[in-house]
Amino acid sequence: MLDARDPLGSRCREVEQAVMAHSDKRLVLVLNKADLVPRENLQAWVKYLRQEYPTIAFKASTQNSSRLGQAKIDLKAEDAVINTSKCVGADTLLSLLANYCRNKDVKTSIRVGVVGLPNVGKSSLINSLKRSRACPTGSTPGVTKAMQEVQLDSKVKLLDCPGMVLASGNMTDSSVALRNAIKIESLADPITPVVAIMGRVPRQHLMLQYGVGQFSDCAEFLAKLAIQLGKLRKGGVPDRDTAEIGRASCRERV
After folding, report:
1. Terminal CA-to-CA distance of the chain, rounded, Å?
2. pTM, to two decimals
3. Residue range 52-71, pLDDT digits in tens
4. Within 10 A of 172 (CB to CB), how many other CB atoms are there?
5. Residue 231 half-sphere exposure, CB side, CA atoms within 13 Å?
6. 8 Å CB contact between 121 and 57
7. C-alpha to C-alpha distance for 124 and 59, rounded to whole angstroms
8. What tens digit of pLDDT does each residue of 3-32 get?
9. Distant-in-sequence, close-in-space partners of 190: CB < 8 Å, separation ≥ 6
């Protein structure tokens, strides 16, 4: 599973290599959250990634009902717009899995592991294919604690795996935090991700999003945000570290 907003940054190369080391295994890239990027960007990424592996654009269901629907939208069409809360791309993915169930015209059973970074939508994908809430989901990483098996049909079993932040990476690195792959509360340095965000987002957007006035640097921004959120230490001194945690909570709600 990849995040359509950051396909390369959400890839797990070590996992891909481990899968392809077995000649009897197949690897499919699912580009989730396809509704959060422009159609042209989505099509370009799908074309690029298909040079390596089969790639499918996907949008998990965001419906609140217990019965989840699936919409058929041709994402290759010039006028394709994803404006539905139903799942998009399930028909293509299910057809691909059905093909993998055939071995010389003999139907076989397969087990499909759904793997990727935390919060890329693995459980949501399984729920969307199953059309029911078979797996718990949430906006924060770490909802799935252990592997779960979900029987999709008589031939396909899906394995919902906990999100992986590989040991070879830096668990407190700002890039991991920006991808929401780790709980903000567990960061040893919560300020670094803020600096990274300020380097990418126009200042006016930050002021509008968090309701703060003009600021000159990260320290002043967090100080004003602390006052805005009521995060003050003894003597009325703004608590910048706590303001960062509050900022992250606001981001998750948005």
Report:
1. 23
2. 0.74
3. 999 999 999 988 887 888 98
4. 15
5. 16
6. no
7. 9
8. 999 898 888 888 888 899 988 899 999 999
9. 184, 241, 244, 245, 248
